[in-house]
Amino acid sequence: MPDYHDDLRLAQALADAADAATMARFKALDLKVETKPDLTPVTEADKAAEELIRSGLERARPRDAVLGEEYGEDGGGPRRWIIDPIDGTKNYVRGVPVWATLIALAVRGDQAGTGGEGGSGSAGGADEVVVGVVSAPALGRRWWAVKGGGAYTGRSLAAATPLRVSRVGRLADASFAYSSLGGWEEQGRLPGFLDLTRAVWRTRGYGDFWPYMMVAEGSVDLCAEPELSLWDMAAGEVIVREAGGRFTSLDGVPGPFGPNAAASNGLLHEEMLGYLGRA
Predict the structure, then answer these.
(1) In total, how many domains does the chain have?
(2) Residue 219, Cα to own-chain centre: how many angstroms?
(3) Range of the domain at 45
(4) Is pTM, for the whole model, over 0.70?
(5) How far apart are CA 243 and CA 138, in angstroms?
(6) Which one of 83, 115, 210, 272 counts the least CB within 10 Å of its CB?
(7) How many C-beta neighbours within 10 Å does residue 109 have?
(8) Which one of 142, 162, 182 terminates a domain?
C-alpha cells in the first residue's frame, strides 16, 4: 500500500498557516465581505487562506493539480489537491465559531502507488481521496485521515486520538444531522427527509463540515446534505471512511464526487438512502 504520510504532514503544515490567517481576521470589525455570482459570501480571509495553501503547494508539490473554491483549478495529472479555505463562511462572517479549512488530496486510482511528490503513469482509473485534514481553529479542533492509516483528532500528529464511528444499528436509536430544509425542498426530496427525521431518535441542524466529523467520532450516526461541491466533501469523505463509516451520494455512489452527500456509521446507510434517495 502506498504511503501518503508525507502528504499528510504537508497538509497539516498548510492547515497551520491557514489557521493563523483566518483566526487573525475572525470577528474583525473591518473584515471585507463580497458577494460571489452564486450569491454566497466570500471574505478576504477566504482568499488569503487559499492563496497561502496554493503557494505552499506550488513550492512543495509543483507537479500536482489544485482545485480550490475561490480560484478554481490549475494543473493536471494523477494527483489533485482539493481546498475549501473556509467551509462555513456565513458562520465566519457572523462570528459563529463553526467553520473550518478543508484540505484533501485525491489520486487517480491507477496511481495509488506513487505517493510523495507525485509521478508519471497512465491516465485511467477513478479518483480516490487519500488524505484529508479538517481544521476548525475557532473550535480548537482538528481531524485528519490518510488512506490505510486510520482517522484521528487532536492538536498534532504526535498527540492524536483515533476516531471510530458508532455501533448504533437501529434508526429509532440514531442521531441524524443535516444542514437546512431549503435544499431538500428544492430537489423534491423533502417528504423523504421529513419521514427520516420522524424515524430517528434525534435530529440536529449542525451544518457544514461538523456533522461529518461527528459521524467519524461516533457522536452522530447519520448526516446528509442535498447539494454540495467537491471541496465541501473531499476531506470529510476520507475521514469518515477511515473511521469505519460510509460516505456516498444520495444515489449511493461511493466517494465525494457526486452533487450531494450522505455519511453514516455504515450500519444505517442503506436505510437512510431509502428515505433521502426519493425525489
Answers:
(1) 2
(2) 17
(3) 5-162
(4) yes
(5) 24
(6) 115
(7) 12
(8) 162
Amino acid 41: pLDDT: 80
Using a 10 angstrom Cβ sphere, with 0-12 exposed, 13-18 middle and 19 or more buried, the burial of residue 140 is exposed
Cell 494523477 belongs to 78
Predicted pLDDT of residue 39:
61
Q: Give yes or no: residues 75 and 210 share one domain.
A: no
135 and 224: one domain? no
Copy the grid coordinates of residue 18: 491557514
* Cα(274)–Cα(272) distance, integer angstroms: 5
Q: Which residues contact 238 (CB under 8 A, 6 or more apart)?
A: 104, 129, 130, 131, 132, 145, 146, 147, 151
Of 142, 102, 120, 150, give the one whose Cα is nearest residue 4.
150
Residue 13 φ/ψ, nearest 5 degrees? -65, -40
pLDDT score, position 115? 42
Place of cell 444542514: 179
Q: What angle separates helix 210-217 from helix 230-242, to the nearest 10 degrees?
A: 10
Secondary structure tally for the chain: helices H, strands E:
8, 15
Q: HSE of 256 in the Cβ direction (CA atoms, 13 Å)?
A: 25
- In angstroms, the CA 16 to CA 226 distance is 31
**Could you report the per-residue pLDDT of 155-212, keeping only the tens digit for each?**
888 889 999 999 999 999 999 999 888 889 988 999 999 999 999 999 999 889 999 9
